[in-house]
Write a structure and sequence with these properties.
By secondary structure, this protein is mainly beta. It is elongated, with a radius of gyration of 21 Å. Strands 1, 4, 7, 8 and 9 form a 5-stranded mixed sheet that branches. A 4-stranded antiparallel sheet has the order 3-2-5-6, with no helix packed on it. A hairpin with a 5-residue loop joins strand 5 and strand 6. It is about 10% helix and about 40% strand. The longest helix has 12 residues.
Length: about 150
């Protein structure tokens, strides 16, 4: 029974790299820029018509897009960047286009990537990230968690 009590300690010790005393968690992360939005805010289908809104995010010349609907559990799009990019300032453009071609949101800004070490300062990975929120009538704004709705 005493051997079983020591098992968690032995397993934890095996997680550290040879010759190192620090134990690192294994949370993964990538460098990049993320834009989030409230799904109903950009959904062309909210009134029950047609397909979804095409949302597109470009960071420098790297772009990604997808269809967004009011039924999405969350609205989020990200562009991944090289992990060694550092604290660069990068141009960002976000567009939301309704199925009928109407532009619901089109905004550009620049963001400075911030250092992130999700497993602690002495553990990998070291990535560079920025987060924005797309808000109709305001455009791209710094990310703030949404208030709790009651």
């Amino acid at each position: 029974m005493r051997r079983l009590a020591l098992l968690p300690i032995l397993l934890a010790a095996g997680c550290a790299a040879p010759g190192e005393g620090r134990i690192c968690t294994l949370v993964g992360a990538e460098s990049g820029v993320q834009v989030s939005w409230e799904p109903a805010d950009l959904a062309a289908d909210a009134a029950g018509g047609g397909g979804g809104t095409t949302v597109r995010l470009c960071v420098r010349d790297d772009c990604t897009e997808r269809e967004a609907t009011a039924r999405d559990p969350f609205g989020m799009l990200s562009v991944h960047l090289d992990d060694d990019i550092g604290p660069a300032t990068v141009p960002v453009r976000f567009t939301a286009t309704a199925p009928d071609g109407r532009t619901l949101l089109d905004d550009r800004t620049e963001v400075t990537l911030e250092r992130s070490t999700p497993n602690g300062g002495e553990c990998p990975p070291l990535v560079w990230q920025a987060a924005l929120r797309a808000v109709p009538g305001e455009g791209l704004v710094p990310y703030r968690p949404l208030p709790h709705r009651t």
